[in-house]
Write a structure and sequence with these properties.
By secondary structure, this protein is of the alpha+beta class. 14% of the residues lie in helices and 26% in strands. The chain starts with 11 loop residues before the first strand and ends with a helix.
């Protein structure tokens, strides 16, 4: 069995990660061969939401054949001989998991709060009442002062596929959209797929799909909040080193 162990120095592999409950989830993730299986699960928990104790991992080669089940949390990942391009499949064993039932992908399954127009009009202190007050005091104050070309010049060096870092949290990811967004304010917007579930959606905003990404990985931000360049995915096992 010892011959299966393939750890030399601080090697790492890039694997395609899929999930049993989230069919749209697919991400290329790099893992150190020196990580324990438990550390691999902890890293995946941050990305897909399945808890470590409810996670079963299966390793498939590049032909789709299952190589092994990672059933020993204390073993180093390299023991299972993963190679670049292999697939690591996450199985969520918790029937009450947040990922089960499909509601992370199908928002129609989520019960939404609703209120009638008549009931809303009777409420005080609403944004509608605030706008009506502003309009009565200054009718021109609500007119749009943002042009359709707002921040277009900042998009000259931002391309789909670029790695990037977004201000306010230094969140990293990849550019998925650049352009005007009809369902948002005038001007140019940048769609980002974060490396971790730190976003607000899956690329669909107010009923319009601008790009595709896993749930809670997407964000639409202004170009001035985005820096493109050499911003590789952060590896949590590296952050723990001194």
């Amino acid at each position: 069995m010892a011959s299966r162990l393939q750890i030399q120095g601080d090697e790492s592999v890039s694997l395609l990660v899929t999930h049993s409950n989230i069919k749209s989830f697919s991400a290329d993730v790099r893992f150190s061969l020196q990580m324990t299986v438990e550390s691999v699960k902890e890293k995946l928990w941050r990305k897909c939401g399945t808890s470590v104790n409810s996670m079963c991992l299966e390793l498939y080669d590049d032909t789709g054949a299952k190589i092994s089940v990672l059933d020993d949390n204390l073993r180093q990942f390299g023991f299972y001989s993963p190679q670049d391009g292999y697939r690591l499949h996450v199985i969520d064993l918790d029937p009450s998991s947040a990922t089960s039932g499909g509601w992370l992908e199908d928002t129609s399954l989520v019960e939404k709060y609703s209120i009638s127009e008549e009931a809303y009009d009777k409420l005080g202190g609403t944004f509608r009442k605030f706008k009506e007050k502003l309009a009565s005091q200054n009718p021109s104050i609500l007119e749009s002062k943002i042009s359709d070309d707002y921040m277009e010049d900042l998009c000259a060096n931002i391309k789909v596929g670029d790695r990037c870092e977004v201000e306010l949290g230094e969140k990293r990811g990849v550019i998925k959209f650049v352009g005007r967004a009809e369902s948002l304010a005038p001007g140019f917007w940048v769609g980002v797929q974060y490396d971790e579930p730190l976003g607000k959606h899956d690329g669909m905003v107010k009923g319009t799909r601008y790009f595709d990404c896993p749930p809670l990985h997407g964000a639409m931000v202004r170009p001035d909040k985005v820096k493109v360049g050499d911003y590789p995915e952060r590896h949590h096992f590296e952050e723990d080193e001194i």
